[in-house]
Structure prediction request, 175 residues.
Amino acid sequence: MTASLPRAGESTHPTAPSIAPFDPPRAVAPRRSPQTEPATHVAALECIVNGNSILLASDAVGKIVEYEVSPLPLARAPMAGIGVLDGAIVLSLAPFSAPDTTPRRKTKGIVLRMGDGAVGTWTLEISGVVGFVDATVTAGSRSPSRPWVARATTRDARDIVWLDVADMIHAISAS
Prediction:
């Protein structure tokens, strides 16, 4: 007896629905609702961006580097440009900066780790690093226009901007 493989779109499970071989892209829903999100305790890296402190999840930090970046002609914020780091192309993010049209510039940044823990191809431009802190991201504080930005409070009671890099990259990738 010879078994045949299912054709594209056929299921091997008798009650599973059929899946089309190609599903065209569609709008991506937000990953969470800013109004219903609970307060979240996080381990974070405090960085300086444009003279202001921001926090990002410590598990999103791959490494801190210097690299050259060039602007992308039709990019929108938070995309700052494209660069090369260790022979690989990186997309550079500057969510709190005006577009820099300098043909090529040197910047500091954080190579971001994506959800699977591997160092990705995205970098976040920074001016400097302060250090690791514990903080609480305030419930319901996400910006409606930039849902990857929220308010956070450190253990020493400082209010700082929280940057959810995973949500920011998700939003960029979906647009």
